[in-house]
Design goal:
With 143 residues, the protein is mainly beta. Helices cover 7% and strands 49% of the residues. Strands 3, 5, 6, 7, 9 and 10 form a six-stranded mixed sheet that branches. It has a four-stranded antiparallel sheet with strand order 2-1-4-8, with no helix packed on it.
Length: 143
């Protein structure tokens, strides 16, 4: 499945808050971020799903932001439910694409990461999975 460039209305959604210093603000698609910002991801889903969050940074490097284990982690239904961990952004500047992969089953994360590393412009996911993608711009200095 190739991921569209725009977010699809309805279904599962990935969101986030940005912590910069002592300030915490809601983030959104196209957000301007700084190295060192901490992202607290949230999910919206009408049913329990399994989630993995992957990112392609401005240097086309792929990272797994969530979970820290080898399998997609179960999330419960809810609206803007926060995940139990945050991600601190590194110093790589440029456009960052963040993919939330929501699946019916606990899939292995490494094959997703490897596939995205092999082709950073398209994420293929197994049947039973849906994707929500956000883009952000990591800049130097103040946003």
């Amino acid at each position: 499945m190739e991921i569209p460039k725009e977010r699809i209305k309805g279904g599962e959604r990935l969101g986030f808050y940005v912590k910069r210093g002592e300030q915490v603000l809601p983030g959104g698609a196209g957000e301007r971020l700084l190295p060192g910002d901490a992202l607290q991801f949230t999910t919206t889903s009408a049913e329990a799903r399994y989630l993995a969050i992957l990112s392609v940074d401005g240097a086309s490097q792929v990272s797994v932001y969530y979970p820290s284990g080898p399998l997609a982690a179960r999330i419960e239904p809810g609206r803007e439910a926060p995940l139990p961990q945050s991600t601190v952004l590194d110093g790589t500047l440029g456009t960052e694409r963040i993919y939330g992969v929501f699946c019916a089953e606990a899939i292995a994360v490494e094959p997703l990461r490897a596939a995205l590393a092999a082709n950073p412009d398209a994420l293929s996911v197994p049947p039973g999975c849906d994707v929500d993608m956000l883009t952000a711009e990591k800049v130097a200095g103040s946003p």
